[in-house]
Amino acid sequence: MNKNVSVLILVYSIFFTGRLYSQTFTVESVLSYPFPSELTSSASGSKIAWALNEQGRRNIYVAEAPDFTPKKITEYTKDDGQELTSLSISSDGKWIVFVRGGDHGGSNSSMPVNAAFDPIEAKVQILSISFEGGKTNVLAEADEPIISPASDLVLFSRGGQVMSVPIDGSAGAKSLFYARGSTGSLSYSPDGSKIAFVSSRGDHSFIGVYSDEQSPINWIEPAFSRDNSPRWSPDGKSLAFVRMPGTGGKTDSIFARRHQPWTIWTANVASGKGMPIWKAPETLEGSVPSTQGGTNLHWAASNRIVFVSYQDGWPHLYSVDTKGGKEVLLTPGNFMVEQIRLSNDGKWLVFAANAGSDASDIDRRHIVKVPVDRARMEILTPGDGIEAYPVITGDNTTIAFLSSTAQRPLLPAVMSFEKGPVRLLGQNLIPASFPLTQLVIPKHLTFKAPDGQTVYGQLFEPKNAGSGKRPAVVYVHGGPQRQMVLGWHFMDYYAIDYGLNQYLANLGFTVLSVNYRLGIGYGYKFQKALNAGAMGASEYQDVKAAAEWLAKQPNIDSKKIGIYGGSYGGYLVALGLGKDSQLFAAGVDIHGVNNRFASSNQTTREPAPDQELYEKAVISSSPVTYLDTWTSPTLIIHADDDRNVNFSQSVDLARRFEDKKFDFEYLAIPDDTHHWMKYSNGVKVSEVTADFLRRKLMK
User: Fold this and answer.
1) Of 112, 250, 378, 635, which sits most exposed with the smallest number of CB within 10 A?
2) Residues 658-688, buried b or exposed e (16+ Cβ, 10 A)?
């Protein structure tokens, strides 16, 4: 590429140059898998539904007992980047409601995406369709729908206010009630007569209850706090909710590690009066949990409130009596819980956990169930597979979930609630060209960072590699609150990267996928590492240690170790190339944060007492600080409708490279987002990444 090429050329500028050395399958074939998401179940009976992305063609599938044969009920035929989210089934099992459009992994999920360059403006719409299929009804241009227990209305929030619309689209949407602030987290009472909600008002939030047009809003124990997560009691007379302090107070030290307090309250709906029933321990581990679902509050049977806490160093499930008292630890052990569901009778919790008898299960997910009142945990899907996102059918007879292995991509699956054989759904939808048996089985691996921290990873070694030295690649996931697993990932972004890792191994690379500190799955101290991110980038030690581990292996060419990663992984790639070009021979920075310089301007609050120290840490943690030692070949990739990492991060880095007269390669993608909403763009990014690493490291 010409060193003086303008960074303002925002077009696809690098073309895949053809079949790579010694490959037996293509990037497109390994990424041709159907990807299921949004698995949901009906509140009664035994019906399930999910969205399926087939090479960019996203549609809804349904199934029901006893045979659970998948049936496609929508007919979207283009790779147009319009995702399907918020799937739900009405209580009577007759309707599916969903959202089409937007990017729900980004900071502005309700903003339309036009990755297909459609001259007709894209929209984010709530739609409904019969469970049996047929006409799709456009209900509203909005997001996050809630179906009424009577299965006749759909609620949503627009402009911070609650609207309702008939589920069959027979009439237009209308305002349901007005409340100052921004209204969200809508929750119907069990009998459908009332609606609890959260009214967010900047530095505080209230829990409110709407009954009807004639009755005033009932505010539940309002205070100078941020109240959230309203949960109804089974009889509809009470609410449980989480209370956290309002924002404000004296500016604290940036480096200080403080307990983030939270309490669980219950309140009588009729009077609005409540009381705290549980207070989190005043320790760092007792702070508000930051894993999937946060506190995961539920009002269960047997007068139990269940929740997640990190208080013993791992994100575990607990329950406490509705009148208060000592909490009961339901899931003891060194593992995490996530994707938690309460059975419809309120007696059981079903969830995914990295637990099992095999030491490498810490890098997997299995489906687990436990009663809400005692620690009698049962792993339902032991073995070497990956199982995630469980749901329970309304009749409490079946658990549905998403299942994969190291070779087979993610598919919906069902099993009896009482355990038993697993039945996969839709295996026939895996394309014949998908290289199932040609994929390698990654190995669980641990090694040490320079400061003694144990680092985790998965090693992909090529089949029939021979006895000579070969090149290697370090893969760095994003997040950073993520964990790569020993199989096809249950998140679409990371499934693409898993496929690319398999392709690189097929080319002859050894790939080390590193789970660095700040990630989930290894306990509180690992996830909440000291001096990480902008405060010192201690997590980079783990990435560097991965490359150094590879360099010591007798079958690896230590001068041909590359690195790639996206988002937070892109940031760590850039840091590696800037600080250690002698270690990383080439790298691909995919929508990474390259410039972490902070502003010390304080407009409404006094500066932090360690603001100057923090600014110095930001400089040392910023990749652009190390441009003088950044010498390795670099490929920058970014889509310019990115809602997670500003496109300007890559524009700025490219400009700095040009000013330095540093030759680099780039791929700029107009109108797509952080998550490659258009399937062909995900393929394009993977092809270009593989081609770059092959050209730079397989000479």
Assistant:
1) 250
2) beeeeebbbbbbebbbbbbbbbbbbbbbbbb
DSSP assignments along 475-496, one per residue:
EE-SSSS----SSS-SSHHHHH
Taking CA atoms, 564 is separated from 404, 500, 571, 589, 685, in Å, by 24, 11, 10, 6, 12
C-alpha separations of 548 from 235, 463, 543, 584 in Å: 60, 23, 9, 10
Position 116, amino acid: A
Whether 156 contacts 143, CB under 8 Å: yes
- What is the rounded average pLDDT for all residues in the chain? 93
Q: Could you give the CA distance from residue 97 to residue 49 in angstroms, rounded to a whole number?
A: 10
What residues contact 420, with CB distance under 8 A and at least 6 apart?
Answer: none
Cβ neighbours of residue 482 closer than 8 Å, sequence gap 6 or more: 491, 494, 519, 520
Q: For residue 439, which of 360, 498, 512 has the smallest C-alpha distance?
A: 498
Between vectors from CA 571 to CA 568 and to CA 573, what angle results, nearest 5°?
A: 110
- CA angle at 613 for the pair 608 and 614, rounded to the nearest 5°: 65
Please name which of 394, 334, 402 lies closest in space to residue 39, comparing C-alpha atoms. 402
CA distance 211 to 332: 41
Give me 546's structure tokens.
């991965």
Contacts of 562 (CB under 8 A, 6+ apart): 471, 472, 473, 474, 509, 584, 585, 586, 587, 588, 693, 696, 697
Query: Is residue 12's pLDDT more than 60?
Result: no
Tokens of 8: 């303002």
What pLDDT does 3 receive?
Answer: 37
* DSSP codes, 65-114: TTT---EE-----S-----EEEEEE-TTS-EEEEEESS-TTSS-TTS---
**pLDDT tens sequence across 75-128:** 999 999 999 999 999 999 999 999 999 999 888 778 999 999 999 999 999 999
Can you tell me the distance from the alpha carbon of 13 to that of 545, in angstroms, rounded to the nearest whole number?
Answer: 34
For residues 218-228, give the mean pLDDT. Answer: 96
In whole angstroms, give the CA distance from residue 270 to residue 85: 35
pLDDT in tens, 618-676: 888 899 999 999 999 999 999 999 999 999 999 999 999 999 999 999 999 999 999 99
pTM tops 0.70: yes
Q: What is the pLDDT of residue 22?
A: 52
Residue 538, both tokens? 């201690």
